[in-house]
Each structure stands twice: as structure tokens, then as C-alpha cells.
Amino acid sequence: MNMHTARAAFGVDTLKSILGISVLAIRWDDAVALLARSIAERRFTKVTFLNAHNANVAYTDPVVAEALDDFLILPDGVGVDLAAKLLYGASFPDNLNGTDFIPAFLQASARPMTVGLLGATQVNAEAASRKLAALALQHRFVVIHDGYFSAAEEPAIVDRIAGLRPDVLLVAMGVPRQELWIARHIDARHCTLPIAVGALLDFLSGMVPRAPLWMRRLRLEWLFRLWIEPGRLWRRYVVGNPLFLWRVIGQKFLRRPAPAKTRPRAGPRAGTGADH
């Protein structure tokens, strides 16, 4: 399932276009049921999440924008909520950020599954696997590889995924590498549900702290992350968030939602590290 089939299944009203990216506007429980149904029916579905940073990347990169057209996209964070309210008069029904949603989805899925983990450092991936195994005893968690591999290593990694054929493949390589990697290497022969999860494995490992619950409830987790990692994240939040809102205002009043898709196709992007 991608956003085109989602449009047919749920109707146009359940999709909100944010800077040209179609995001599914459904409740938390409905999203859990949707992914569970995809697995039960073995319906290959690429999944990712849209937040202000991802939207900015796709806005300026036609390759990323084109790749996202074939993903089922869930809303992540206060930025896209503000955008939805500005553009459509209402926020998304729920904040389906992957850090909270994916563990909850795995816990809620009673049917035993095999879940592959790809990305982060080996130490963090192994720690995340143990944490997930404790949260969801019914599933088998397998670390495929860390996220720091060369192009020469890719065929062996892809072959290992195909041999395992997990129900769910969590890909944690950072934006946009994880989405592009899934788009270029993963299809129905490899797994049923490849999900781009950003820093999820780092959070689950405990090596990267999460904001206190009160900050998360106030939708200020981005501020906590900026405080923890200012050198790496200041451009994303201090520059990126106002730029995102400015672009959304442009979408509302100038009706120019997706300039990236109208530009010539760019060449492939390289990278071997994780930039969550």
C-alpha cells in the first residue's frame, strides 16, 4: 500500500498535503490496525513519518520527494500539526511519531512476527533489540547490520534481509538516506513492512536520552533534543522550523506546494552514517 491506494481506501479527506507530501490523517488505533492488516495480508507497504525536517528535505530534493510518493506517510510532531491547522483548519487526529508509535504497534500486534533491525551502531542496535524483545515477547527481533556500511557491502545485506524475510524491517539510517535506501533496495521479496524509523534504535538503546514526559506532552521534545545536541541539530530546528512554517504559509497563500517534484531529477545521494 502507498498513498495512492490509501487515498482509494480511506478517501481524500484522510490525506493532508504538506508541502506536496501526502500524509495520512487517522487515529492512533486505526494506524495500528492498518499496519497489522498489511502484515496479515502480506501487502508490501513502505512506511515513513513526516516532520518539519523531512518536509524541508523533500521540498528541495526531487529525488526524495519522488521516493516519498510511494510511501505510506504518518504525521510526526508539532510542526506538521501546525501546518495542518494552518492549511486545513484542523490538526492531525494524533501525533504518530515513530519513537512512540512503533514500539506501541509492536506491543499491540498479538500475531508473532519477525522484526529485522538495520541501522544505528551495532551496540545501539543490539541494545534496542533487547529492549524491544522485553516490550513485545511475542516477536523475534534480529539485528541485520549497523547503519555504517559501504556500497560494496549492500548486496550481502540485502541478501540477508531476503533470506530472513522479516514481517517488519526497521531501517534507522537518518533522513533521507533511510527512505532512499528502502526505495532503491527493498521490495516484497525482502519483507512486508519496511519502516524508516530515524533515531528510534538510539532512543531504545538508552544511549540517546528522550525528553521528560512533561516536555513530550507539551510537544517540546524538539527543544530537549536541541539542548542535548546543539552542534548537530541547531540548523535543523533553529533554521529549519521557521523555514518550514514560511514554506507552509507559501503553500497556503501562493499555492506552490511542491516545487521539488517539478525540477529535473537529481543524481543519487551518497552516505554511510546516521543523521537522525
UniProtKB/TrEMBL annotation:
Q: Which InterPro entries match?
A: WecG_TagA_CpsF (IPR004629)
Which CDD domains does the annotation name?
A: Glyco_transf_WecG_TagA (cd06533)
Name of a matching Pfam family: Glyco_tran_WecG
Q: Which UniProt keywords apply?
A: Glycosyltransferase, Transferase
A molecular function (GO) term: hexosyltransferase activity
PANTHER family found in the cross-reference section:
PTHR34136, UDP-N-ACETYL-D-MANNOSAMINURONIC ACID TRANSFERASE
Q: What is this protein called?
A: Glycosyltransferase
